[in-house]
Amino acid sequence: MAVAPYLSGKAWADLDTQRLADLLDATRQEGWREALSGIEKDAPFFVKRMRNLALGNWHMLLLHDRADRALDVGCGFGSLPLGLAQYYRETVGVEFLPNRIAYASTRAAQDRRTHCRFVRASGHILPFTVGSFGLVTLNGVLEWAGVYAEGNPRELQLRMLRETRRVLTPGGHLAVAIENRFAMESLLGLPDTHTGVIWPTVFPRWVANAMTRLRTGTPYRTYLYHPNSYRRLFHAAGFESARVFDLISSYNDYDFVVDVDDVASYRFLFQQDRVRSFFRLAGRVRQTLSRVWPGALPRVGYANLVIGGATTSTILDATHPLWQALAATGAQPGRHRFGCQGEEAGQLSIVSHDGDRVTGMIELGTTLPADDASITIPARVYATFGSNLRPATRLRIAGVECRVHLPAAN
After folding, report:
1. Element (H, E) at 283
2. By C-alpha distance, which of 111, 120, 100 is closest to 19?
3. What does the alpha-carbon distance between residue 9 and residue 11 come to, in Å, rounded to a whole number?
């Protein structure tokens, strides 16, 4: 089967083969951070992605044992495994393209991440034994499962999911970051990033197939789903439990993590006017929906995080053991909760609210600033959510530092 011409990487702002070779040479001579500065003007989005080692901080929703091992399938240039290495005992990145493995390995060596390594393999056949990892991640990868192999795309996606399930420990989790089929951006005509075609995700598969054949000469094989369908897909792959979250506003650049069943948190975030949008029209429509039909917001989010396992409890759940461990500090889960992306790898905050105001915040991190005036979430976010809070207590839970923020006394 021919590889579609749109898989050049342009949609993802990746570098072509020669430019990547030049970057690798510069990286070996100057260091990876310094070498990125040299191409920032010409490739700003690529550089931003490479520097963002906090990309996978959503994994802290699971609060895994830090002695676990983590695997990132389709790791690309290595940013996500390098970030996971801040937390886990060992991380492994799987990638098929040798030049990407070379670049990722060079970065790990320069950062002295000896417990972070990279392996050449396909996501369809992972070279690991049963029960090797506590966490497996696929970041923008599952949709491509049907492109590089023959067969029905959905069946190929199921095969990849089952393969990840095989290498998970009994209590482990698979986390898949992927676009929503019915994202508002797609409904409003933003070209699909996988095909370059307008509206293929929103039409039935047979229509999408005809559309992409007409426009690109290749069939439609990068299947996306909506939240309920992602749950069904995971169940079909053998996962007993599956949860869906919204990474607002994109899995490559998000501020908030919201359970798609938590409409109150969607409404609260939009009322506070803190939701960024990379497609202005979609942002305006969502803002309107937050006032007239907030229940529609989970259906039209851009990017989903799907977590599967035997159980899928997270620290966004009021029943999670974290809240019992924090009870003596005065921290309460509150009526509703959402996650805030941390500034550095291994940092995530949970904001509690009652629908109208913030009632508390918990900062979690492998390391937190010693100075209570230094906050790990973006300043523009804290300016809204932290204005009535004060740092109250510090403690350590499950190998993670916690800083509790409670409402300031009136």
Report:
1. helix 280-292
2. 100
3. 5
What six digits make up the tokens of 372? 């209570």
Write the pLDDT tens digit of every residue in 208-249: 999 999 999 999 999 999 999 999 999 999 999 999 999 999
Q: Kindly tell me the burial class for residue 60, based on how many C-beta atoms sit within 10 Å of its own C-beta (0-12, 13-18, 19 or more).
A: buried
Give the separation between CA 165 and CA 138, rounded to whole angstroms.
Answer: 12
DSSP bridge pairs for 41: none
| Axis-axis angle for helices 263-271, 280-292 (nearest 10) | 120
Number of CB atoms found within 10 A of residue 190's CB: 17
| φ/ψ of residue 75, rounded to 5 | -75, -10
3-class DSSP state for residue 189? coil
**What is the pLDDT confidence band of residue 387, given thresholds at 50, 70 and 90?**
confident
The owner of tokens 């095909």 is 195
d(CA 270, CA 336): 15
Domains of the chain: 5-309 (3.40.50.150), 321-407 (no CATH)
Q: What is the pTM of this model?
A: 0.95
